[in-house]
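Input/output pair, single chain:
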Amino acid sequence: MRVLLLKATATALTLGATLASALYVTAHLKNPAAPLQPAVLSARDSGAGAGLAGALVVGPTVRPTDSPPIASTYAS
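Output:
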């Protein structure tokens, strides 16, 4: 009898948490008109590569350095 009560309680808590989270999510919906990502400037807007007919020109973002290589990623 105790096992059945434990299973029923766990099931009720699971269903209650699922219902509460579903109500929370539906109450806090995103704006459907919001953009999914930020706008990207085209090459003609940024001034770089003006003759590429709207193609986006991306320069190198990783630059070499004279720093010693990292031997460990541990941080305290």
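Residues 2-27 form the longest helix (26 residues). Residues 48-52 have pLDDT under 50 and may be disordered.
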